[in-house]
């Protein structure tokens, strides 16, 4: 990973007023981290009671499950609105909550992909909403089992930063379990690079991450796509703190048994986030007169699948 500067969160005895919008697996995990703050939620199910299985060890019998509650947000003053929905739902959520945002100091987008940040920034400006826009990236793991139980799959790190740097951001108290990154766009680019390789390929082959490295056909496509993404990043002058192909191999091996979010979406015939991963890359490639044929082919193939659902 990159050696960008990361600062620990400031300590404070005052409880923050935090709203979590979107209570999928990651949203539930973020809400759990924030459960000792003045926590509110916004979710379509109107859910106010939540649980998280916090023990990953099979020796824990029964598994440790934390339960917590949070009222629905009715527009109370908020220090943070944390949006954990799919990228494509960002403007829909902000529009739904538009009347509440005048009482909101900061909006933080914690999602896969890129492009929605620019869309949200433009939307806030157009609607004359003064809340600061922040973005975050997380290596924390959580998944929702078939039973509906959310499990904490692996501890990681969540870093956040101001989307448009201006003024003093050092005075902002971050939500729990988050650290401040001064080069957040580079962090997002680094995650985008890995997602642009693993996500479309696992969806195309309908395989777990590690399987991309275990057969000659998959490995050949993995190497070719890694090379294409690395070349494109270099041409666009998007910096990463690692060799893209080596890091993609490392991530695929370390998460060998995981199903990427895009693979899961395809399995369940849900709209994928590839427009904000592959689509974002292709948009910037076209704007700069560049080609990315493998990315284009995978993106079009999976988009055709989605259109048939």
UniProtKB/TrEMBL annotation:
<feature type="domain" description="Ketopantoate reductase N-terminal">
    <location>
        <begin position="18"/>
        <end position="163"/>
    </location>
</feature>
<dbReference type="GO" id="GO:0050661">
    <property type="term" value="F:NADP binding"/>
</dbReference>
<keyword id="KW-0521">NADP</keyword>
<dbReference type="InterPro" id="IPR008927">
    <property type="entry name" value="6-PGluconate_DH-like_C_sf"/>
</dbReference>
<dbReference type="Pfam" id="PF08546">
    <property type="entry name" value="ApbA_C"/>
</dbReference>
<keyword id="KW-0560">Oxidoreductase</keyword>
<protein>
    <recommendedName>
        <fullName>2-dehydropantoate 2-reductase</fullName>
        <ecNumber>1.1.1.169</ecNumber>
    </recommendedName>
</protein>
<comment type="function">
    <text>Catalyzes the NADPH-dependent reduction of ketopantoate into pantoic acid.</text>
</comment>
<dbReference type="GO" id="GO:0005737">
    <property type="term" value="C:cytoplasm"/>
</dbReference>
<dbReference type="InterPro" id="IPR003710">
    <property type="entry name" value="ApbA"/>
</dbReference>
<dbReference type="GO" id="GO:0015940">
    <property type="term" value="P:pantothenate biosynthetic process"/>
</dbReference>
<feature type="domain" description="Ketopantoate reductase C-terminal">
    <location>
        <begin position="184"/>
        <end position="306"/>
    </location>
</feature>
<dbReference type="InterPro" id="IPR013332">
    <property type="entry name" value="KPR_N"/>
</dbReference>
<comment type="pathway">
    <text>Cofactor biosynthesis; (R)-pantothenate biosynthesis; (R)-pantoate from 3-methyl-2-oxobutanoate: step 2/2.</text>
</comment>
<dbReference type="InterPro" id="IPR050838">
    <property type="entry name" value="Ketopantoate_reductase"/>
</dbReference>
<dbReference type="InterPro" id="IPR013328">
    <property type="entry name" value="6PGD_dom2"/>
</dbReference>
<dbReference type="Pfam" id="PF02558">
    <property type="entry name" value="ApbA"/>
</dbReference>
<keyword id="KW-0566">Pantothenate biosynthesis</keyword>
<dbReference type="GO" id="GO:0008677">
    <property type="term" value="F:2-dehydropantoate 2-reductase activity"/>
</dbReference>
<comment type="similarity">
    <text>Belongs to the ketopantoate reductase family.</text>
</comment>
<dbReference type="InterPro" id="IPR013752">
    <property type="entry name" value="KPA_reductase"/>
</dbReference>
<dbReference type="InterPro" id="IPR036291">
    <property type="entry name" value="NAD(P)-bd_dom_sf"/>
</dbReference>
